[in-house]
Design a protein that fits this description.
Blueprint: E1 12-16, H1 21-32, E2 36-41, H2 44-55, E3 61-65, H3 71-80, E4 90-93, H4 109-130, E5 139-143, H5 156-176, E6 182-188, H6 196-199, H7 211-222, E7 232-235
Parallel strand pairs: 1-2, 1-4, 2-3, 4-5, 5-6, 6-7
Helix pairs in contact: 1-7, 3-4, 4-5
């Protein structure tokens, strides 16, 4: 891609859950636009592979193994960032997990806790740590899923964690308005990623959106001029599948 079209050149984005799925698609899309990247995830081997791929696009990349559920792991990530980058211009809170389809009376409490720890607590911990590095004009995108506004039987922990994350996102947006930091909720419908192996192994993948399609929508929202914002990105498969 010609350098003249690199609309995120000289900016730095932190993306959690960046080694696969929507997070990886966003990382690739941002890198094509010249954005420097901090990619975080739990799979160190996958992160190294992704880092090598992205470095070929002549951007700066910091790959950091981080478990967003663990405050100490998040703290370690943020101790490493200032040595490489003075600020974070874009934060993509993408890390998230699902759980097997189970009714509430069969859902183990440890599963409930783990889903909340990743989808809600992790978003809080990363955001709180990132805010001191974010200035006027920065943007936060929280991957909420369409499950943040709708419910799906058998997915109680996933539904509840995403509703909680939406409440957090809406509160964060109002708190950060005076600082000139935009907050966007990404509410994507069925997207062809590995999460379906847990959520619904027999799901009709051919009807779903690609992760690249969702990444295009996120890029478009981030590129909106700073005096405007898309507060919510709701993107769904055109065939009508959620």
């Amino acid at each position: 891609m010609p350098k003249t079209t690199q609309r995120l050149k000289s900016r730095t984005a932190l993306i959690t859950g960046a080694s696969r799925g929507i997070g990886l698609a966003i990382a690739r899309k941002f890198a094509q636009q010249g954005c420097n990247l901090i990619i975080a995830g739990r799979d160190d081997k996958s992160l190294r592979q992704v880092s090598r791929e992205l470095l070929r696009l002549k951007i700066r990349v910091l790959a950091a193994c981080c478990d967003v559920r663990d405050r100490h792991s998040v703290d370690a990530l943020f101790r490493s960032i200032p040595r490489e980058f003075p600020r974070i211009d874009i934060l993509i809170n993408n890390a998230g997990i699902a759980h097997p389809n189970l009714p509430i009376d069969k859902l183990p409490f440890p599963v409930w806790k783990d889903v909340f720890a990743t989808n809600a607590d992790g978003m809080f911990l990363v955001t709180q740590a990132a805010l001191p590095l974010m200035k006027n004009g920065a943007t936060i995108v929280n991957n909420l899923s369409i499950a943040a506004t709708r419910v799906f039987p058998g997915s109680a922990a996933y539904n509840a964690s995403k509703h909680a994350a939406r409440g957090f996102t809406n509160t964060l947006r109002e708190e950060l308005r005076p600082r000139g930091i935009r907050v966007i909720g990404l509410e994507a419908g069925a997207t062809d990623t590995e999460i379906w192996k847990t959520l619904w192994p027999q799901a009709p993948r051919r009807k779903m959106m690609s992760a690249e399609t969702v990444a295009e929508a996120v890029l478009a929202a981030v590129l909106v001029p700073p005096n405007a914002t898309m507060e919510t990105i709701e993107i769904l498969p055109s065939v009508g599948m959620l």
